[in-house]
Amino acid sequence: MENTPHIAILPSPGMGHLIPMAEFAKRLVEHHRISATIIIPTTGTTPPKAQLSVLESLPENIHHLFLPPVERLPENVRPEIIISFIMEGCLSSVKDALSSLKSKWKLVALVFDMFGHVSMEVSKEFNLLNFLFFPMNAMALSFTFMLPKLDEETSGEYKDLPYPVKVPGSVSFHGRELMAPVQVRTDEVYKGYLLLSKKLSLLDGIMVNSFEELEEETFRVLRGEIAGKTLVYPIGPLIQSDTNNGPDRHECLKWLDDQPSGSVLLVSFGSGGTLSVEQIHELAHGLEMSSHRFLWIVRSPSEASNASFFTGASQNDPLGFLPEGFLARTVNRGLIVPSWGPQIKILSHEATGGFLTHCGWNSTLESIVHGVPMIAWPLYAEQHMNAKVMTEALDLALRLETDENGIVRKEVIEKVVKELMDQGDEGKKIIKKLKEVKSIGMKALSNGGSSMQSLSKIALQLKK
Ligand code: UDP
């Protein structure tokens, strides 16, 4: 049996968790004598190409294995319910996988994300350390720690609370801004998330994809008063590093090559974000009225804000839903990319000067790492909380206000896009702050930096 400590990593379905967990594994095995196996739950369909390309790009001391498919998935339910179903459904195969890994390696720990906590008991059967990989930020973790108390003290839905909810070490939120899993207290998703929050104190450690200096106060409060004995490790900003540099360069990058430096606003709503027809029209008109260059990754409209979560693709031709004549009128300064674009490459391109984002945490970190100032347009998950932290606490993004029907109107879009891209007073402020934070984030992940120190502490814990 190999004597190097080995860890099993169990990401739940969806690229948003696999990517940072794989990056975490890479850093750990690169800098410490540790190896890893990523255990991938499946649902019977062929693994998505994006998933395979991440797995195939990993170094040889990070292995991966696919679990047997979980079948008969529930239909017409929220993505979180499907993910929880898959993670429950693959428990016995996780057990088999751990048993097989244990026979080959010195298996010491299981690392899972928020949906994988159901595997904690299984991992204890093998005497493994239990680590939670928290792909959100320290604020969201602090909120998760306070959830059991909030649950006890509140009757009814949080969205009806007459007072704001103060997250320890961070800002206050209106109940309706709290993360999606806690919005309907009677449903399975809430019960699952509450259960996770109650299990936090049983964990051996939590890796947070953020960095000490970005959320200094929140990490301080987490360690001092909130997390108790559970160790909290900031290990970010981890974003996907190996994004296929093959000869088939995406057309949109060639288009960017011809645009002036810092002149283009990227508009993208993550892997699953969708807008209503009305909202798509307002956005199109707002972009047009701003007179600025833009690259918009467009999906077919949907009334549900996360309709593309599993596929990352639109079901219909998205361009048919744009306002009449929009493409022709903006042909010289706008590019529409249907469904999916190489976001990191776009953000790292010289021509990109702003990012209108749904505030998914991966997108936010990608923007910070590449020094691109943001306009926050949260849609679902914990994005409303992220947006508030980015705009109110950290000054890294400008905010778009919605009207009484929840629509962001074209005049508002025009004004905020101009503020950022023309570098008005507010725009200048966030551009300056973002530059500073970018450089601090890079330091965190360089030798001796705060996140690298966390990795060393984790390695020490694994080797004990
Ligand atoms: N992404 C991409 N192209 C797209 C849309 C998204 O490469 O057209 C990537 C993006 O770079 C990020 C991830 O998908 O790494 C989205 O993660 P995030 O946490 O921002 O949002 P989610 O998709 O989980 O809502």
TrEMBL record:
It is an enzyme of class 2 (transferase). PROSITE patterns: UDPGT (PS00375). It holds the Pfam family UDPGT. Keywords: Glycosyltransferase, Transferase. Its EC number is 2.4.1.-. It comes from the Eukaryota. GO terms for molecular function: UDP-glycosyltransferase activity. Belongs to the UDP-glycosyltransferase family. This is Glycosyltransferase. The lineage of its organism: Eukaryota, Viridiplantae, Streptophyta, Embryophyta, Tracheophyta.
